[in-house]
Amino acid sequence: MSLLGNILWLIFGGLVTGLGYIVGGIGLCLTVIGIPFGLQSIKLGLAIFTPFGKEVVELGEANSPLRIIFNVIWLLLFGWEIALAHLTSAALLAITIIGIPFALQHIKLIPLSLFPFGRAFRPIRS
Predict the structure, then answer these.
(1) pLDDT band at 37 (very low <50, low <70, confident <90, very high)
(2) Is the distance from CB of 48 to CB of 21 less than 8 angstroms?
């Protein structure tokens, strides 16, 4: 089921969105200061390619002082806008019964878009 969901996701916007995050991340990596944020943007772009069958997990060092500072900077500069876009997309998709699984994937991506430092997107273990 997750393969079919990921294929439909890519066809109906996931590919373009993921590529947008990756291109933005590469742009951020052009500056020395933006490299950590660019890497997180690229990580988000890769997560957007295949959200079905994956979950957001918090790594052991997620609450280190440097990651907290980076998460606060990310939240103020980029995160709230990305999370709002995912929330809006989820609300629009949830209107139809067919769109509900895709809306759930957008909701799943909100925590990663708000605080990407110290979090990863991994396959769900059964």
Answers:
(1) very high
(2) yes
